[in-house]
Design brief:
The chain is an alpha/beta fold and 187 residues long. The protein is built from 4 helices and 9 strands, in the order ββαβαβαββαβββ. The chain is globular. The N and C termini lie far apart (44 Å).
Amino acid sequence: MRTVPRHVFVAPDLWPQAYRDSPLPIGEEQTISQPYIVGFMLQMLAIEPQQRVLEIGSGTGYQAALLGMLAAEVFTVERNAVLAAAAERNMRELGLANVKVITADGSRGLPEHAPYDRIIAAATAPDVPLPLFEQLVESGRMLIPLGDAFEQWLYLVRKTNGQPSLNKVAAVRFVPMVGEAANPPRH
C-alpha cells in the first residue's frame, strides 16, 4: 500500500486528507474506501502473483491499482462511465498495464474473461450474485459485503465442489451494488 499513491485517486483539494484512514468522496456520489478496510480485504483474498482477479466497483481505481501490484491480471468493472474513465487514466499514469478497466454492470461480472481466481466487490448485495459465483474457479475466493442499508457484513466466499462456503468476517458499510444480478427476483 505504500507503493500506490492514494492522493492520485481523489481530487486535488482532498490531497491533504488522502492518507488519513477514512473514506473520501470521489465524485458521482461515491467514495474511496478507507485504507484500513482496503488492506484488510486484500489480505483476506490471499492473492498469489500468478492469479487473475475480478473487482466489482472500480471507483477511481485505488483498490484496482493495489490489486494490479499483487496479481498477474486484473479486470475491474465500474458502471459509472465518469469514474471508469478516471480509473483507466489512473492505471495508465501508474503504468499498470495488467489492470483492465471496463464500464459495465458489475453484478453480472465479466463472463467473457472468466474464470477468476479471486473476486472482490466494493458494493453490497443482499445475496451473493450467482453470475459472480459462477465465474469463480474451483477453490477460488470471493470477498463481498452482503446485507442491506441497515446491516452489512463482509463475507469470504470459497468455492468447494462447485458449492459456496460463506464465512462472516466483519461488519462493514458499503454503497449498494446496482445491477441486474444484484437484486435477483425472489420466488
